[in-house]
Each structure stands twice: as C-alpha cells, then as structure tokens.
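re the bet — no i am not wrong, look at it urself. input seq straight from the record:
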Amino acid sequence: MKELLAILALILFTCLPLVAQDHHHVDPNEKLGVIAFPISCSKTAQTTVEHGLALLHSFLFDDAETQFHAAVTEEPKCAMAYWGGAIGLYPPLAYRPTDPDMEQGWEMIQKAQTLGPKTQRERDYLDALAVFYRSDDRDYDTRNRQYSAALEKVYKDYPTDQEAAVFYALSLLA
C-alpha cells in the first residue's frame, strides 16, 4: 500500500513545477483542484483553509500561507487554521523548512493544541504534525520518518479522507 501511495503521489507531483515561488499572485481565473477538508470551524474559515490546501498542493506556498493567515484572522479560535499555517511550512518535495520555519510551525501547533481541536480527526491531524515540529534534537530525516508513521495511522483511521492519503503519500516521498 505504501508503494502505491508513493507512486500515485510521485505521478501527481512530478507533473507540477518544483520551482521556488517568489511573487506569484493567484489569478481569479486560475484553476485549482477541489479540496474537501471538513473542519469544525466556520464555513468561511473552512473554505479559506481548503483554498490554502489547494494552493499548497499546487506548490504556491506563499499564496497558501496567505490563505492560512486569513483563516486565523477570520476565526482566531479555529485550531485547524493554525494547523494549516504549520502544514504550509512543510513542503517536503520542494525544500526543507528553515530553523525559523520549524520554530514558527511548532508555535502554531502549540497554539492549535491550546485551542483544542473539536473532533478526533482534527486532533489526529494536529498530533501527527506535532510529531514533525516538536522541538528537540532529532534530525530532519528522523522527523520525517516519525511524521510518516503518524500519518499512516491517520490514513488508516480515515480511509475515505483524500487529504490523509495525500499527506501520507507526500511523507513517504520525503
């Protein structure tokens, strides 16, 4: 199963440009994939997080970050908006997060944990990403392996959740 997920993710993401994004701005006519990522926040925050994920999957990292920040602004008590900001700092096929990115990601995870995700699924996503960002002396490869193992559980627990499959497949490629 891991091999199938890795192959599918590889096919999907090798079709997208792996270039650094400096000043890309979303064109309102730009076509992005449709993301279904239900969260227990307001409909506006959910739509914004989903748009951020679509941008993230299109390697439009700066624009995704803007969306996640907007979701936090729209609903400061939405734990999954902070999760979105943290996942946006982890683009495993493009580059490794910088030390400041790691610190910022860990701060977002801690904020989300303090707010308390409302559903078990949200807690599982947050706990998995906390494995990656937790502040300690592990190296990047160890963090990725442990994060992948945590995501495997999310993927198995929510087999119809396409985002769980995507994030798990990405973690295998990292």
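see?? DSSP finds eight helices and no strands in the chain. told u. also The CA atoms of residues 13 and 57 lie 8 Å apart. so pay up
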